[in-house]
Hints:
The chain is α+β, with helices and mostly antiparallel strands. The protein contains seven helices and five strands, in the order βββββααααααα.
Amino acid sequence: MSEPLKVTGMVLAATPYGESDKRVVLLTRERGKITAFARGARRQNSMLLAAANPFAFGVFQVYEGRSAYTLSRAEISDYFTGVKEDFEAACYGCYFLEVAEYYTRENLDGSEMLRLLYVTLRALQRKQPDNELVRCVFEMRAMVLNGEYPYETEHDTALREATRYALSYVLRAPLQKLYTFTLTPEVFAEFRGVQDRLNRARIDREFRSLAILKSMVSGLGQGTETPGAP
């Protein structure tokens, strides 16, 4: 057996495997997206029972195999319980995990996407700003990280000046300040329209969790203006 490897990451997905195991997808800082098998993780007395679930963030000990890893131990620092216990937040969170899985690859640096995912889930847990604004901001920065965002969009003179300013802010703001603003309903409707068009043009798959979100969200633009907001 190979030497144990410790990676910092988050569980993006977990599915049953065999009688008592789980197959988990981890987004890690060191190895990007990896697949690992958690032996016995569905047993009630397993020390991986809680760790081998979506949203679990921490340090994972794995052994590298030919085509997958074996998860042997985990030290979880955040389960994002506040997200999982709120149905609406959980739906958004599952969508963010799915998007992160779509954009990331094995053996490529996953640190920036992991950081983006972490601060986004923290914003959901705080319930501020509005979940739909969090969604648009996350989608935008995920495109930036993947090198797909068309920066000319922020200079579109057909958009309101406040919308262009908001776009510019999201594209460049430090992650710790990414979710510290809100928008007026009119600006947010335009802002969301920009991102929705980009999603249709640049993402080549349907996200199951997004269909649930679309059925939940009614109306457009639920923001309020705050001092210093874009």
